[in-house]
Amino acid sequence: MILASAGSGKTYALTNRFVKLLTLGAKPERIVALTFTRKAAGEFFDAILHKLANAARDPQAAAKLATEIGVRGFGSKEF
Fold first, then answer.
1. 11-69, pLDDT tens digit by residue?
2. Chain mean position to CA 52
3. Which of 32, 33, 37, 71 sits a CA distance of 20 to 30 A from 3?
């Protein structure tokens, strides 16, 4: 659970947690992520897609994301 004020990086932290769970083999439909507004849910979803798309397209983005989420050996192919 992340409790924090607006602009504190909650979306960043949650999207990184979500992507890390995916890299560890969790099925997306088995991950629960809750927020209070549809707008926030949309931003969360968009941020996940953006991170994965960038990592799949750009090896440097993949390396950066892998470092941010604490997984080794993940590159563009894996994302």
1. 899 999 999 999 999 999 999 988 888 998 999 999 999 999 999 999 999 999 999 99
2. 7
3. 71
